[in-house]
Amino acid sequence: MHIWVDADACPKVIKEILFRASQRLSISVTLVANQGISVPASSLIRAIQVPAGYDVADNYIVQQLKAGDLVITADIPLAAEVLEKKAHALNPRGELYTENNIKERLMMRDFMSDLRSSGVQTGGPAALNQKDRQAFGNALDRFLARHLK
User: Fold this and answer.
1) Residue range 1-28, pLDDT digits in tens
2) Domain count, the chain
3) For position 133, which CATH number holds?
4) Are 58 and 78 in contact (CB under 8 A)?
5) Which CDD domains match (predicted)?
6) pLDDT by residue (tens digit) across 94-109?
7) CA angle at residue 53 from 71 to 124, to 5 degrees?
8) Phi and psi (nearest 5°) for 94?
9) Burial of 13 (0-12, 13-18, 19+ CB in 10 A)
10) Residue 47 domain boundaries
11) 3-class secondary-structure state, position 34
12) Alpha carbon distance 61, 81 (integer Å)
């Protein structure tokens, strides 16, 4: 298994949790972003910088991942593509995207986009807090315990 990170918008604290898990469990982690990202010196952790552009990082991840890999992303359309490739997607707040919830998330995303395009101020997601960090760490641990056998 390989962990891919949609790193442009991934909070630093989530990356740090992933770095610790990588070292503890000897799992390869690749961060993909449009900008340079610093990562700890480790043969298990690498950063890939892709050219700037709409969905360039997402497309790179989808092209590279294999069935069974894990992708860390808050990008719902990317999560849907990941699931289509029989891989797994986890968001930085600890929610595992599944075949059962991805369609609902896509519909809600499209609905909110329609609201914004009609002038309604919807605001963005709340800042990541300690509860979210803990939820992510717990979800990652549960996922890895199930899939690393």
Assistant:
1) 999 999 988 999 999 999 999 999 999 9
2) 1
3) 3.40.50
4) yes
5) PIN_YqxD-like
6) 999 998 887 877 677 6
7) 65
8) 95, 10
9) middle
10) 3-148
11) coil
12) 10
